[in-house]
Specification:
The protein has about 350 residues and is α+β, with helices and mostly antiparallel strands. About 35% of the residues lie in helices and about 15% in strands. The strands form 3 sheets. The protein has a 5-stranded antiparallel sheet with strand order 1-2-3-5-4, covered by helices on one side.
């Protein structure tokens, strides 16, 4: 077990904390820890004691901007959503005691299945119509989430739906202004278009805000069955079509420029739906009016560019030393190109 420094975790303290909160754990085996693939955001670990397994999530090491990487909020969200949407993991415990870990963390159930990340899993490659089945499963999981009655299930305090889209547009405009670098293109025309085309949709649903393929887990051997949806940190309530837009952003196609995204849906010949197929099937199943899809798709590309721009800015000013951030400007430029394509009705 390692002692805690500014970039390490004292796992012995974590094990003691877990054993104090969960009974009937094996006393004969020490806890083992495995770090999952590290992205740009929160850190995720599998912890195991005997046959018991769970997932621990915490913010990154180092400086964190105010309100960023709010693990308590994510914990409280899945605490409310899991009972009505079991694809969200069951939360076990939340801790903000800095004597145990330098930053707050929470522990939730570990689901066992297949996550589709940078490559198509071998287990799915030989299954007939796997691309279509995956596409259908993602669409259905999104619609099921959006069909949950927010008021009936006491979820109305997850966010402020009134003016949700307006806040998204103006909020990301401010974030771009605060993180501007000398290689960022002029966004005035794009931002003016977004402001002038904000739809008047009044429907309110749960908005995951990061609903993408590698935030889901599939049943082993069944590409048509999703058993888990993860990363609820950004979730709120608001316009359901914002999630549709961001899902379509991540649903890459052959011929897209390199946007720095991890996605396999652009793999030719596997049978994934195109963005248009995805959109049409979504509208067919749920019956929503998707005539404003170009706005939501444009906003999705713009927001994702903004997320990467904030990371790139922090690297540019020397706040973070992670060399992965040094080439983010390329992905940002391509995302903004795609936003222009969507704005001009040239993508779907």
């Amino acid at each position: 077990m390692q002692k805690q420094k500014n970039d390490t975790i004292d796992w012995q303290k974590i094990e003691t904390y877990i054993r104090n909160h969960i009974t009937d754990l094996s006393k004969d085996e020490e806890m083992s820890v495995k770090k999952f693939t590290e992205g740009y955001s929160n850190l995720t670990y599998m912890v195991k004691i005997g046959e018991w397994e769970a997932v621990l999530r915490r913010p990154p090491f180092g400086y964190i901007p105010p309100k960023a990487h709010d693990m308590e909020r994510e914990y409280r969200i899945i605490e409310k959503i899991h009972p009505v949407y079991p694809l969200a993991p069951k939360p076990y415990m939340f801790c903000e005691d800095t004597n145990i870990m330098d930053k707050h963390f929470y522990i939730m159930e570990k689901k066992n299945g297949i996550v589709i990340d940078a490559e198509i899993p071998e287990a799915f490659k030989e299954i007939k119509n796997a691309g279509k089945d995956i596409s259908e499963a993602v669409i259905s999981a999104l619609i099921d989430l959006q069909n949950i009655d927010v008021d009936k299930n006491g979820l109305h305090n997850l966010g402020k739906p009134e003016g949700f889209v307006e806040r998204q547009v103006y909020g990301w405009k401010k974030r771009f202004e605060r993180s501007r670098t000398d290689d960022l293109i002029d966004l005035k025309d794009l931002e003016t278009w977004l402001i002038n085309h904000i739809p008047s949709n009044r429907e309110v649903s749960i908005v995951h805000n990061d609903f993408k393929l590698n935030n889901m887990m599939f049943e082993k051997g069944d590409p048509g069955k999703i058993i888990g949806v993860f990363d609820w940190e950004l979730s709120t309530i608001g316009d359901p079509l914002t999630d549709l837009g961001s899902s379509l952003v991540y649903w890459t196609e052959e011929g897209d420029p390199d946007m720095g995204l991890t996605s396999v849906t652009d793999e030719a010949g596997f049978g994934f739906y195109s963005r248009r197929d995805f959109l049409e099937r979504y509208a067919q199943i749920c019956g929503r009016d998707v005539s404003d899809v170009n706005f939501y798709l444009t906003l999705g590309f713009y927001k994702l560019a903004g997320i990467l721009q904030q990371l790139y800015y922090r690297w540019k000013i020397g706040e973070v030393k992670d060399d992965r951030f040094s080439t983010l400007n390329q992905g940002i430029a391509h995302l903004l190109e795609m936003a222009e394509e969507a704005k001009n009705n040239r993508l779907i």
